[in-house]
Write a structure and sequence with these properties.
The complex is a heterodimer of chains A (about 110) and B (about 425). Chain A has about 110 residues and is an alpha+beta fold. Chain A contains 2 helices and 6 strands, in the order βαββββαβ.
Chain lengths: ~110, ~425
């Protein structure tokens, strides 16, 4: 089963953990077959929000939510069950500085 | 025959359910299957006699009914996952009968219901519903929550177990200390909910304490960890004072004024024995069935220490005989594993009993100055009591008045008002 581990960090902590450590974490997960995909994200002030309302496109600057922590990256992993996913998430380096939200992936119902 | 089936339902329905959840992989199907199985028992046992092993019969019947239902549904909806579920159920022929797996099923159920990924109030509701077999209405009444709210809480928790795939497992030894803590927290919360009941609903809520003690016993039986024993001891020792802690008029009676002849000696004896077990180093023989599952937690956990404190009180023939030196020592140990301002306050009160009110007051003032207890009514009540004993009446009155403003429980309000009145009289 796939889980998306969303990494949240406060703005000033975005670069606290070395990229080499995050890279090593991804490589480790890839080598034991748990990793589907992982990326780090640019800070939130580079974000653009896109909406379509009544057929019209609206483009605005960043998400407006005044949250302290922002989405900093993600790991899409393959895990046996939630306990397994929690174990994987606990080893993602930013877990020490921010938080990891673990969300099960939902299969689209196309039947 | 009806009574026989009812008796088996009482004694074994939770075990049957716990095993069916493992076999069918789903709480709702398992509940349905269990009810089908008991319905079948009501039909067949009068004709064919009660089977030699009713529980195994019920699990087998429930499993069969569920597979049958899945097959019937499969004819209408050609869904892959239905086939998969049916395969699991059929293939597991050996596993379901294995006594060790079956015994572990109840533990699996407890740990799943208390999984930290579920909201705390959902853990409580689900545990009472699935492990204790209380109805949704009973739980709602006991927690003074509307039944639809509670029902929704349970539905959401079950959905999360399924959708996020919370496994039906006993945690690995590495996960155990943390996961056990969650289970103990749920049990103690249920106990306190019942124990602090003071008004109209007291009768129903009292059942919650009994339910928590039953859960505590089950846990100790399945997983004899020191902290599980400590928690059961703590609950029994508190429960032993139930009939002494409230006057017939519903007024609170504090520990030092309780009629100790009303304390339940049987519960005290059991509690003290459990504390001693929890405190003693594990004998090698205790690691019988699954040695990997034995304690890795620190030798002294917070529940065990609190139980030891309760045991010191329980063993004092009169309030004046209390070994305060021992109690202060135990609070020191508790502060070492679980430091909190509330525990520091309790320690200060014990120091006051051992070294005199002035020593205690100095500690309480220090705690109040630190700020965290400023809004805690019992800190002000404790300060008032110490000032009163020191003859500092005006200060005592001010602190009682502060505590009175913060209290929301009627019996507590009456107690503080009584103290204030006594203060005025003694001047």
């Amino acid at each position: 089963m796939k889980y998306l581990c969303l990494v949240y960090l406060e703005e000033q902590k975005l670069r606290v953990i070395q990229d080499t450590e995050c890279f090593a974490c991804g490589e480790h997960l890839r080598s034991n077959g748990s990793l589907v995909a992982a990326e780090a994200l640019q800070p939130i002030d580079t974000a653009t929000t896109v909406r379509v309302r009544n057929g019209r496109l609206s483009v605005t600057d960043g998400p407006f939510a005044e949250t302290k922590e922002q989405l900093a990256g993600f790991y899409l992993v393959e895990a046996r069950d939630l306990n397994d996913a929690i174990q994987i998430a606990s080893k993602i380096p930013p877990a020490r500085e921010g938080s990891i939200e673990v969300r099960p992936v939902r299969q689209l119902d196309v039947s | 025959m009806h009574e026989t089936v009812n008796a088996v339902y009482e004694s074994d329905s939770r075990r049957v359910l716990a095993t069916l959840i493992r076999l069918l992989g789903d709480f709702d199907s398992a509940e349905e299957a269990m009810h089908d199985a008991f319905r079948a028992a009501l039909e067949q046992w009068p004709r064919e006699g009660v089977p030699a092993n009713p529980r195994a019969w019920l699990v087998s019947a429930g499993r069969f009914k569920a597979i049958d239902g899945m097959r019937r549904r499969k004819r209408f909806e050609a869904l892959d996952d239905v086939g998969e579920a049916a395969d699991i159920a059929v293939d597991d022929h050996e596993a379901w009968a294995d006594p060790e797996s079956v015994e572990d099923d109840r533990l699996r159920l407890v740990f799943t219901c208390c999984h930290p990924a579920l909201a705390p109030d959902a853990q409580v509701a689900l545990t009472l519903r699935e492990v204790c077999g209380l109805t949704t209405e009973e739980i709602a009444q006991a927690f003074l929550t509307p039944a639809p709210t509670l029902a929704q809480r349970i539905v959401r928790a079950k959905a999360k177990i399924k959708d996020a795939k919370i496994p039906y497992q006993v945690p690995t030894p590495a996960e155990l200390p943390e996961r056990l803590e969650a289970v103990l927290r749920v049990i103690y919360l249920v106990f306190n909910e019942g124990y602090s009941a003071s008004s109209g609903a007291a009768v129903t809520r009292h059942d919650l304490s009994a339910e928590a003690i039953r859960l505590g016993r089950l846990l100790v039986e399945l997983l004899p960890e020191p902290e599980a024993q400590g928690l059961l001891a703590l609950m029994l020792l508190h429960e032993s004072r139930r009939s002494a802690r409230m006057s017939p008029q519903g007024d609170v009676i504090l520990l030092d004024e309780q009629d100790r002849s009303l304390w339940d000696r049987k519960q005290i004896a059991e509690g003290v024995r459990l504390v001693e077990q929890a405190l003693s180093p594990r004998p090698a023989a205790a690691a019988t069935r699954s040695p990997g599952r034995q304690a890795r937690s620190p030798a002294l956990g917070p529940y065990t220490i609190q139980a030891a404190i309760a045991a010191v009180h329980a063993e004092a023939p009169a309030a004046a005989d209390t070994d305060w030196n021992e109690i202060v020592g135990l609070y020191d140990a508790l502060m070492a594993v679980n430091p909190s301002p509330v525990i520091a306050l309790n320690r200060a009160v014990a120091v006051a009993m051992r070294d005199g009110p002035a020593a205690g007051l100095a500690l309480v003032d220090e705690l109040l100055a630190a700020g965290e207890l400023k809004e805690y009514r019992l800190a002000h009540a404790a300060r008032a009591e110490l000032c009163r004993r020191l003859g500092r009446t005006d200060e005592a009155r001010r602190s009682y008045e502060r505590a009175l403003k913060m209290t929301r429980q009627e019996p507590e309000r009456r107690l503080i008002e009584k103290r204030l009145a006594e203060l005025t009289r003694s001047v």
